[in-house]
Amino acid sequence: MLHSSDIVAPDKRTPGVAKIDPVIFPVLDKLYARRIQRLSTQADALGENGEYFRFLVHLVQAQQQYIAQNPLGPDEAATVRTLLDQKRDHAHLQASLLNIPYWQAAYTALVGQVAPILPSSVGDKLAALSADKEQLAHTATHLLHLDYSQVDAGVSVVLWAALSTCWAQAVSLGQTQDLPPSTTQSAHCPCCNAPPVASLVLGGAREGLRYLQCSLCEARWHRTCCLCGL
Ligand SMILES: [Zn+2]
Asked: Is 43 found in the same domain as 7?
């Protein structure tokens, strides 16, 4: 005779999630603070092997500080949102990026914050790119077109972080839940078309719901698991 069961008794069942938001937009200051805390914990756990996590802590702190001191204005946000579908060819996107000073200044600020803790050769390479806006826009275009092999790996981490500060604010300022259903179930971000960096099963009020985390604009979008339908 069976004495226990995994089936929850009817009087103990919770009502579930009444409404599923297609997209969750980030509160950037809180997101960065949480990320800094988690990266710091990981760096401490690894001790002397935690150098890369300590570098990432510096980088996210620099993002948080830059956004706090230089919030993106509505006009620049509107300009960035014209680029979000990423369907422009290389020359057109590069020219558009050259005309948006915000992400370029963000890159310069992030380099200023992280270069002192990097080997001088790496810091010099990052700073040289900051001084050459044409090359900086050319490199950023490769990243946004996901041509990762065309970009130095060390540069790409800092440059992507700079682009993210700009794209995340632009998407948040223009946020809407009114997205076509076909895009919210996409493998790419329905807000900026970048690929996801992780798949998350959430807790709290969204217990059990699966969202993908955007690698660029920090939005999360609901996507059921293709295997189990969760
Ligand atoms: Zn996105």
From this structure: no
Tell me the residues surrounding ligand 1 (ion) with CB < 5 Å: 189, 191-192, 194, 214, 216-217, 219
Provide the residue-wise pLDDT of the chain in tens; the chain has 230 residues. Answer: 445 555 556 565 555 666 888 899 989 999 999 999 999 999 999 999 999 999 999 999 999 999 999 999 999 999 999 888 657 799 999 999 999 999 999 999 999 999 999 999 999 999 999 999 999 999 999 999 999 999 999 999 999 999 999 999 999 988 765 666 656 567 889 999 999 999 988 888 888 899 999 999 999 998 876 555 44
Beta-carbon count within 10 A of 194 CB: 22
* Statement to judge: residues 12 and 74 lie in one domain: no
Q: Are the C-beta atoms of 194 and 188 separated by less than 8 Å?
A: yes
User: pTM of this prediction?
Assistant: 0.87
CA 190 / ligand 1 centre spacing (Å): 7
| SS3 call for 220 | strand
Distance in Å, CA 51 to ligand 1 centroid: 28
Q: Are residues 219 and 150 in the same domain?
A: no
The domain containing residue 113 runs over which residues? 28-173
